[in-house]
Structures are given as structure tokens and as C-alpha cells.
Design goal:
mainly alpha, 9 helices
């Protein structure tokens, strides 16, 4: 009986190999040959799933968009944010976007590798814009749930969401560039300060 191969699972495994290479060496290093070596498949197997390196990179970015969407939408749709702890809950969700552990650091490195490539690749640019919009919407949703969301007379909710998004992006870059300069507690203090909260 012929072996049944889960095509989607294999494509995702290949995409994750692209991520691993991009995190270490940049997206340009994720050729079909290096991806095949990374995930222990033959070049022919990669080519069977993806017609070209460009198709492979697009799928890898599509998968990032899918997973980021799931990650950012699920927490806000849950009942885990009790009224008493809503501020702490929102801050915990925002900190999930920062590279505070090896897994999230790898994700951030992959994302910046794709973002850099998207600056000059018109086919990747829409995916970068989609994730940017997702994170912007997430920041706005977080602010909307805070008790003080509508009490700031100096800036609109949209302006505060844009500033929060920029703050998180900046913290991510800072923590990747200087990993020993700030820990999770320091990042949390900065986010709390932005939100006008203390602990």
C-alpha cells in the first residue's frame, strides 16, 4: 500500500525550514537547496511542493500571516480578561509580541528578514502590509478594552494605537539588536508607562 503523505503538513514543515534559515542568515539564504538540507528532504521533494523559490517564500510568509492572525485574535476573543485584571491581562497580551523568549526571538528575526525582503519585492509587500495591519488592529483592540481607553483628551484612540504599535516595534528592534540591554521586566515597565499604569 503506497505511503500517504500529508501535503499541507509537509508544506508547513518546509516553510518552517525557510523561517529557520531566514532567522539565522536572512531570507536570501533560503534557497531551495538550503531549505531541502534544513528539513531533510530532497531538492525534488521541495520542487514537487513549490514550483519556484519565490512560491516557497510567498507560502512561508502566508503561513506567518495565518499564524499571527490566530495568535492575535484568539486571546482577545477569550473570556480570560476578567474586569478586575483587565489591565494586567492586556499588558500580558502586548508583551506576547516582544522577543522575550527563544521562540518569540526566532519569530521576530524571521519577521524582520521577511520585512526587509518585502521592501524590494512587490510580491511579498502585501503580506508585510497585512501583518502590519493585524498588529495595528490588535493594539487598537487592546486599548479599547482598557478602563481609561476613552479618557485621553490629548490623543485619539487611533493615534494612541499607532504610537503603541510603534513602541512595540521599536522595543522589538532594540531587544534584537541589544539583547542584554533590556529584560522582560524592563520591557513591561516601558509598556506600563506608555499606558499610564504602574505596579
Amino acid at each position: 500500500m503506497p505511503k500517504i503523505v500529508d501535503g499541507q503538513a509537509r508544506r508547513e514543515r518546509i516553510a518552517e525550514a525557510v523561517w529557520a534559515i531566514a532567522a539565522r542568515n536572512g531570507l536570501g539564504s533560503a534557497t531551495i537547496r538550503t531549505v531541502a538540507a534544513e528539513c531533510g528532504l530532497s531538492v525534488g521533494s521541495i520542487q514537487h511542493s513549490f514550483a519556484s523559490q519565490a512560491c516557497l517564500q510567498r507560502f512561508a510568509m502566508e503561513l506567518i500571516v495565518q499564524r499571527v492572525t490566530e495568535r492575535l485574535s484568539a486571546p482577545l476573543a477569550s473570556d480570560q480578561l476578567s474586569e478586575a485584571g483587565v489591565t494586567d491581562g492586556i499588558i500580558a497580551l502586548l508583551l506576547q509580541l516582544l522577543p522575550l523568549d527563544p521562540e518569540r526571538e526566532a519569530e521576530a528575526r524571521v519577521w524582520f528578514a521577511f520585512l526587509n525582503a518585502a521592501l524590494t519585492d512587490d510580491e511579498l509587500a502585501p503580506y508585510a502590509a497585512e501583518i502590519d495591519a493585524l498588529i495595528g488592529s490588535f493594539c487598537r483592540s487592546c486599548l479599547e478594552q482598557l478602563p481609561t481607553a476613552r479618557e485621553d483628551e490629548h490623543a485619539s484612540l487611533e493615534e494612541r494605537a499607532t504610537a503603541l504599535h510603534a513602541l512595540l516595534d521599536g522595543l522589538t528592534v532594540h531587544m534584537l539588536a541589544a539583547p542584554f540591554a533590556m529584560d522582560g521586566a524592563g520591557a513591561e515597565r516601558i509598556v506600563r508607562s506608555f499606558l499610564g499604569q504602574t505596579r
